[in-house]
């Protein structure tokens, strides 16, 4: 794994013999400040594994963050610390601003959007704008682990690079451990400290 400013810290996401769906015997670690990409064929279980880590799907084995077992936390407490951003984001209110914590300053420009975005109606957003806002929404909630399911799938090439660089910087600056589902090998090379790949129901590091 490449060296990062936080690689030596004890804050680590650790999976021990995790099983979910067709996956079994999954064990790996991602330290705070690092990005691990997760690749594999469609239907191989990438999203289900993220959901298991987020305590959104039953699974076998043990998952730890900062030495605390997922099973020892209330689900809502775990999900505040270990947050998943799905491939398709969910929106409940009419305006963008209503999806962000009240009183928190939101830097829309960080994801390439204008300050006036906060007053936009959700139904006017493109899929790429929704994807960038979903990432920003997650960051404003101060997670310690981010689980990203193809976070740039709906973005044009320029925004892909911008969001990659922004997420890498956020991981280091805020000591966030990131597990990032990435289908593009070139993207994995750009963003990953460690590349994980699903093969025959196992997760292998490369």
Descriptive key words:
206 residues; alpha/beta; Rossmann fold; six-stranded mixed beta sheet; four-stranded antiparallel beta sheet; 5 helices
Summary, kept brief:
With 206 residues, the protein is α/β, with parallel strands linked by helices. Helices cover 26% and strands 27% of the residues. Mean pLDDT is 93; it is low at 1-9.
User: What would you call the structural class?
Assistant: alpha/beta
Q: In percent, how helical is the residue content?
A: 25-40%
Count of helix runs? 5
Radius of gyration equals: 17 Å
According to CATH, what is the topology of one domain? Answer: Rossmann fold
What CATH architecture of one domain would you give? 3-Layer(aba) Sandwich
Which superfamily, in CATH terms, is the homologous superfamily of one domain?
P-loop containing nucleotide triphosphate hydrolases
User: What is the CATH class designation of one domain?
Assistant: Alpha Beta
Shape descriptor: globular
Question: What's the order of the H and E elements?
Answer: EEEHEEHEHEHEHEE
Please, what is the average pLDDT? Answer: 93
Which stretches are low in confidence, meaning pLDDT under 50 for 5 or more residues running?
1-9
Sheet with most strands: strand arrangement = 6-7-8-3-9-10
Number of E-type strands: 10
The major sheet is characterized as: 6 strands, mixed
Q: What separation lies between the terminal Cα atoms? A: 10 Å
Beta percentage is: 25-35%
